[in-house]
Amino acid sequence: MSGANSYDVAIVGGGHNGLAAACYLAEAGKRVVVIEAREKIGGMASSGYLIPEAPRHLINPCALDLMSLRVHPMMPQELQLERHGFRQVEMSPGYVYVHPDGNSLVFWREPEKTAAEIRRFSSRDAEEFLALMKLVDAFIDMAIPMMRVDPAQRNLGAKWQALKAVLRNRHLKPEIMALIGSPAYTSIMERFEHPVVQSALCCLLGAAGPIANDATGIYFALLGFIHRFGLGRAVGGTQALSDALAARLRELGGEILVSAPVAEIIAGDGRAKGVRLKDGRVLSAKAVVASIHPKMALEMVTPGALDRRTLTRVALAPANGHGASPLKVDVALSSQVNYRRIEALRADGLSLRKSVLLIGTSDAVLDNFRCAARGEVSKLPYMWITVPTAVDPGQAPEGQDVAYLYPVATPVEPREGWDAIRDRVGQTVIDQAAEYMLGLKEFEIGRRVEAAPDLEKRLNVHRGCVVHVDTSTTRSAMMRPAAGLGGDSLPVAGLFLGGAGIHPGGGVNGLPGRIAASRVKRFLAR
């Protein structure tokens, strides 16, 4: 087929990774189309007016904080997204832990300032923290060069950078290997003695997964990232990033189709040939990039084109395999909330309105994951809470707020089913958050509650897993999403994965799309 429905590359999924891949390919002169099932682009990097009772309160239903994009800033720079309206502001401080007794511990950009916070609770813990940061910084120096490149390539430059970091820190190597190979919880508890310090670190690292599992020491990278790179927010909501990508793509001559669900990724004679939409249209393409969940992507491929072993391997790649998933509760408010009770206990007069508060204890983190694995909701609060409108007031009417409540570990499959408990659990989350966020209940206009099955249905993501495939050392590089599927090509020539299910994984940074685009360019040049 040629003509209007013929492309060099068809990209299935209009999330930020799919849009990034499209931009890189269009920049290289390829005729590209992005095909999005929903009525708007963005996927998990989106925003919208999603609470009917509050039509002027902007909701960020998934991603909000731009940590990963600050660690890996290449994509917005290379694609000139600032010219198309993308702008981010840094939050300072970004994360603040709050204990149930009201004591708070700030994670500042500078490790020394964070250590000074810790010293208020334990001088020994402060010194231990600085020693830990030396290990974490060394690990990041080794890891970042390889995170940014395609694991299927030789990457001699990146390997040389990583090797130099290894050699520079060779005296720390045994400690680093012990740290990343151990449960994060074990390392926290053996190093730190004060319950506030222990809980602060458990609540931070728990966002990456169940910290009591082996080899979760890699989660300490979060600690290094926030100190080295800080946190940012997109002005105008996360949708602003996706909209900037779409504007850049159109500038480059690329096309975007919305409200266009794909029925089939067409394959024959061992090659990808295009896509068939559910409305019957067929778009031919020399290559297809699936920037959606790998399981859903491969199940779209023409029956018989992929062998059973491949399909089974990707279908069983762990997605919230520990049984836990975040819950999301957004609340539109008629006035502004405050944290005066917590701020009053500090001697420095610091305002916490622009920060993310980490709520819980070390016991609560463990209990939330254990309960979720049993299909239960823990009674102990463990959540991250923030007010996006404190950083960007334009996301609500003047003098009003939006609250973003993020319980980290709730059951993917509760025993009673989410339909039976969604409203009750949503109210519990608001009740718990209101102990810290004053005015949350009094000023409520409307709310939105989204659990794992809701996210799965809305965005076609397996088990509602926001990173597509669980983050672990055994699901990285060429092993992500599974053995034989993390490299330069799939068993169907011209078919590529390009979402969070490939290296380097989840987070808003566009690297999976960038890597996929490079793979497609090499394929088309053969």
UniProtKB/TrEMBL annotation:
**Stretches assigned to the Amine oxidase domain:** 18-402
- Provide the function of this protein: Probable oxidoreductase that may play a role as regulator of mitochondrial function.
| Native source organism of the sequence | Thauera sinica
The protein depicted here goes by the name Pyridine nucleotide-disulfide oxidoreductase domain-containing protein 2
Quaternary state and interactors: Interacts with COX5B; this interaction may contribute to localize PYROXD2 to the inner face of the inner mitochondrial membrane.
Domain of life here? Bacteria
